[in-house]
Amino acid sequence: MTATQVELVTPERTLYSGEAEMVVTRTVGGGNIAFLANHMPFVGAIEPGLVRVVLEGGDEVRVAVHGGFVEVRDNRVIMVADVAELAEDIDVERARRAQEEAQRGAGEDPEAEAALRRAEVRLEVSGRA
Amino acid sequence: MAGGQERLLRGRIRSIQSIRKITRAMELIAASRIVRAQNAITAARPYVERLGQVVQDLAAAPDARAHPLFRQVDQVRRAAVIVISGDRGLAGGYNSSVLRATERLLRQHSADGHGTVLITVGRKAQSYFRFRGYQVDHHFSGISDRPSFADARRIVATVMAPFAEGDLDMVEIVFTRFKSLASQAVTTRQLIPLADQGADEAGEAEGRPSAEGERRTVDFEFEPDPADILDRLLPSWLEAQVLAALLESAASEHAARQRAMKAATDNADDLIKTLTRVMNRARQDAITTEIMEIVGGAEALRSARGTQQGVRAQMNADTATPS
After folding, report:
1. Which candidate from A10, A33, A73 shows the least CB-CB separation from B47?
2. Do A21 and A56 meet the contact criterion of CB atoms below 8 Å apart?
3. Cis peptide before B162 (omega within 30 of 0)
4. CA B179: distance to chain centroid?
5. How far, CA to CA in Å, does B305 sit from each of B84, B301, B302, B308, B317?
6. Looking at CA atoms only, how far is residue B151 from chain A in angstroms?
7. Nearest chain B residue to A72, by CA
8. Architecture of the domain whose range is B27-257
9. Phi, psi (degrees; rounded to nearest 5) at B69
10. CA-CA distance, B46 to B32, in Å (whole number)?
11. A40 to B233: CB separation less than 8 angstroms, yes or no
12. Measured between CA atoms, how close is A17 to chain B, in angstroms?
């Protein structure tokens, strides 16, 4: 099985860099998409949610990505996100509190709306929605 | 008399010693912060570079050229100028050079008949332009020491809305580029409209991937369509550029401060050495004078006593004779 080079970068740090068998994400307006080795050149906007980087041997790295961009070319999948975190780094308690707090303000306040969205994504990715 | 001068010098030396302690401490603090600032630049670099690549690849897309990010305006009506300075002084020429470059840019704009929106980062920039009668439209402080992505986002927010409404045609940023520990340079970069790729030398150094040579143009599949992606990409791209500028400026400020404080500490060392020498000389002189006085006094006393004794002997002799 040929592998593809994957990089997931945020302004603070590089979350993942290495080989993988497959990357699964969801693009804005396009639904789920999986990139295998030698995928055709592609540029897309990532819908906030779970990104799965499937490694050879079946292990996977789960990442909460709060919007960003993906570019595929020359057998490299590069994902760029303003805010993203690895599933194991997510503070579930905090996300739950943030979700409750944001639910009260949601509806009119776009800031709270965004916070709610982020909290939901975190809970979804950590598998404890 | 002479002792007074010695005391005066001792006081001056003591005050220079305590100033030296302060400059030395500032030097060490700045040195340790440079390392942290450099690490932040390194950590953010992949993000900035990768985003630059996406922008570049999108630029090649068929209808991307019409997007506001790339649209070259024939007639600039209003330009936003973002200037990044420090909150504190004592950093050598760091603040003044970036501020002077900004003022030149503002003058150029008004000479060309462009309106300007001035956005200052750092207390030094705010007070400089306020004092000179410029209108500071947005101001940020307390972030230049340790800038974060959230700070970059707040700064970009001030230009995004007017740009979207067509109130702004151009966005420029003036900051200090951190080339190396020994060399930093004031840089003016045009963020919007995005200049043609590879046109400006500064952009190349920032790692827009001309380093890899000409990137082949590839036929990409886009999802959603390029214009939609560009709409989403525009703020992120601006934020990345502003963040990079903030981080480089922070490292430059620490480097400039370290250099300035090292020079001040060295000067203090020299001054202390010279003054100590002068003081010792003065003390020596005072001691010599004192000894001379004592010796002179003793001599005078002895000779005085000598003559007195002579007189007394004479007197004794005189009184003795009749008896």
Report:
1. A10
2. yes
3. no
4. 15
5. 83, 6, 5, 5, 18
6. 12
7. B220
8. 3-Layer(aba) Sandwich (3.40)
9. -65, -35
10. 24
11. no
12. 11
B5 close to A (CB below 8 A): no
Q: Cβ of A27 and B223 within 8 Å?
A: yes
Asked whether the beta carbons of A64 and A50 are under 8 A apart, the reply is yes
Nearest CA in chain B to A46: B223
Phi, psi of B126 (to 5 degrees): -60, -50
Q: Both tokens of residue B216?
A: 């082949």
H/E stretch holding B93 reads none
**Side-chain-side CA neighbours of residue B211 (13 Å):** 11
Q: Which residues of chain B neighbour A42 with C-beta distances below 8 Å?
A: 220-223
Nearest to A11 among B44, B58, B223 (CB): B44
Q: Cite the residue boundaries of each domain of chain A with CATH code 2.60.15.10.
A: 4-86
Q: Are the C-beta atoms of residues A126 and A99 closer than 8 Å to each other?
A: no
Which residues share a beta bridge with A42? A72, B221
* pLDDT value at residue B53: 87
Whether chain A has a CB inside 8 Å of the CB on B233: the answer is: yes
| B65: number of Cβ within 10 Å | 12
Residue A88 has phi, psi (to 5 degrees) of -70, -15
ipTM, two decimals, is: 0.84
- pLDDT mean by block of 10 residues, chain B; 323 residues: 78 95 95 93 92 85 74 82 93 93 94 92 95 94 90 92 86 94 91 62 42 61 84 88 94 95 96 95 91 91 76 66 53
Q: What is the pTM of this model?
A: 0.81
CATH class of A4-86: mainly beta
Residues A51 and A69: their CA atoms lie apart, in Å, by 12
